[in-house]
Amino acid sequence: MARRRSDDSSAPLPPVAELAQLAQDLDLTALRDAIPEALKAAEKENCSFTEFALRLLRVEVAQRKARWRSRMERHSRLGPEVNLDGFDFSIRPGLDARVVRELLLCRFVYERRPLVLVGPPGMGKTRICRAIGHAACRLDLSVFYGMTAQILEELAASLVDGTYKRTLRRYTKPDLLILDEFGYVGLDKTAARHLFRLVSERHEKASTIIAANTGFKRWKSFFPSEAECVATVDRLVDKATILRFGGKPFRGPQETHGAPLDGDEK
Question: Are residues 126 and 233 in the same domain?
Fold first, then answer.
């Protein structure tokens, strides 16, 4: 029986209007909006009933995936879209552009392997991390990006308010966790313990990227003890891909005025 108009219980809805109402009731909003154009195309092309149904359902599925991906990107904290267009690999000695671009396919994420980027500030590590993160989102992988120190501070604070398990799960659950700016500040025993647990929980279960501002030889200076450093690094480099950054920094002043000060480069 045809559905009645909401303002007139005695008058049934026309078939097209009822179809739109049924789609609305089923929360198929993209399908509902696609009905008029789909009907026009079906009449023009004389398509089969099956093809007509497929067109409508494909629109709904595509829209739901787009909404889900948009939510995942917001939750990832990656910020605006970043890619490697225009990235100057020529000033990064030994860093093969083909290797980096291959990482955008995220095979290492599916393989649950770590990725470690090491080198001084201003080398482009963050840009590559975020580009990989956005590429992973486009592949419907869950991603979380954050500064290492901030994440460790949040874990420490969660012990105080009793939300530790939930907070830890926020960082252990994603398919890809990106820990940026490691090495700016040293780790006390509490922070080192949180980092070790986080890395251990994800080891061989999910992929982790860590971007560090120094090479491995100096990492032990950031940990309270060499043993804690070795235990953490051992899991971070196990089956990892390591990118080493050298060369000239991307960042620098646009203009410099005035006479050089003592110690400034002439």
Answer: yes
| 266 inside domain | no
pLDDT tens for the chain, 266 residues: list them: 445 444 555 578 888 788 788 778 878 787 788 888 888 877 787 777 788 788 888 877 777 777 777 777 778 899 999 999 999 999 998 899 999 999 999 999 999 999 999 999 989 999 999 999 999 999 999 999 999 999 999 999 999 999 999 999 999 999 999 999 998 888 999 999 999 999 999 999 999 999 999 888 889 999 999 999 999 999 999 999 999 998 777 666 667 677 777 656 54
Q: Tell me, yes or no, whether 66 and 141 share the same domain.
A: no
Reduced 3-state DSSP string for the chain: CCCEECCEEEEECCHHHHHHHHHHHCCCHHHHHHHHHHHHHHHHHCCCHHHHHHHHHHHHHHHHHHHHHHHHHHHHCCCCCCCCCCCCHHHCCCCCHHHHHHHCCCHHHHCCCCEEEECCCCCCHHHHHHHHHHHHHHCCCCEEEEEHHHHHHHHHHHHHHCCHHHHHHHHHCCCEEEEEEECCCCCCHHHHHHHHHHHHHHCCCCEEEEEECCCHHHHHHHCCCHHHHHHHHHHHHCCCEEEECCCCCCCCCCCCCCCCCCCCCC
> Same domain, yes or no, for 117 and 62?
no
pTM: 0.75
117 within domain boundaries: yes
